[in-house]
Design goal:
There is one protein chain. The chain is α+β, with helices and mostly antiparallel strands and 208 residues long. It has a single domain, classed as Metal Binding Protein, Guanine Nucleotide Exchange Factor, Chain A, CATH 2.170.150.70. The chain has five helices and eleven strands; from the N terminus they run βββαββββββααβαβα. The strands form two sheets. An eight-stranded mixed beta sheet has the order 10-3-4-9-8-7-6-11. A three-stranded antiparallel beta sheet has the order 1-2-5. A hairpin with an 8-residue loop joins strand 8 and strand 9. The relative contact order is 0.23.
Length: 208
């Protein structure tokens, strides 16, 4: 099944192959994901706890059909994830691992909800399976929050990436060339830029 996605202003559009993706959806509450949202000045993409609802995709199953020229990439650290967004409206589109040898693109669930209802997104991708990195959560802890990442969920993610490798779904990728080079030259935040975002994020908790 093909699921359409779109940035907030509609200039970036695409589709994903949504088959066999249930069981991998998670909300990430880490301070890096929060810092990224604040860097884009899109705190509205975070939930009340500072979380980002992420659905993983196999790279070759994600297609950008319009607006590739609008996409930009940023890394919070020189060796950090490639975080791709639509420059036109600062909508987060997808996070790729630092190396294409790890075939994974994490897409915010909200980019699908513009073209489909939240109920349809839940039906196709399943409900949130885990809330992780809750050591940086803001406010009262959400249900089933994990301090970091549970062992069971980590095994599911490893299975996901292994399946992508075995089936060849790691290529082609919208974010890497066949030689493994990024298609979007990333801007790397300076230490000063990164640290300026930290006060906007949840701080390391001592209650979990």
């Amino acid at each position: 099944m093909q699921m359409a996605f779109e940035c907030d202003c509609g200039k970036v559009k695409g589709t994903v192959d949504a088959n066999r993706l249930k069981g991998y959806r998670a909300v990430c509450l880490c301070d890096d994901c929060q810092a990224y949202a604040h860097y884009l000045k899109r705190a509205d993409t975070l939930d009340a706890n500072g979380g980002t609802d992420i659905i993983p995709m196999m790279p070759s199953h994600m297609k950008i059909t319009e607006g590739m020229e609008q996409l930009k990439s940023v890394r919070l650290y020189r060796a950090g994830m490639f975080r791709c967004y639509a420059e036109c409206c600062k909508t987060p589109i997808g996070n790729a691992m630092a190396s294409p040898k790890m075939p994974y693109i994490g897409m915010p669930a909200r980019v699908f909800e513009k073209k489909s209802s939240a109920a349809s997104v839940n039906e196709i991708f399943g409900p949130v399976n885990e809330r992780m990195q809750a050591q940086f959560a803001i406010g009262p802890l959400p249900p089933r929050a994990q301090k970091k990442v549970s062992f069971g969920f980590m095994l599911r993610v490893l299975k996901f990436m292994l399946t992508a490798k075995i089936t060849g779904a790691g290529y082609p990728s919208p974010f890497f060339t066949s030689e493994g080079n990024p298609t979007l030259v990333p801007y790397v935040l300076t230490k000063e830029e990164r640290e300026s975002l930290r006060p906007l994020c949840g701080t390391l908790r001592t209650d979990i």
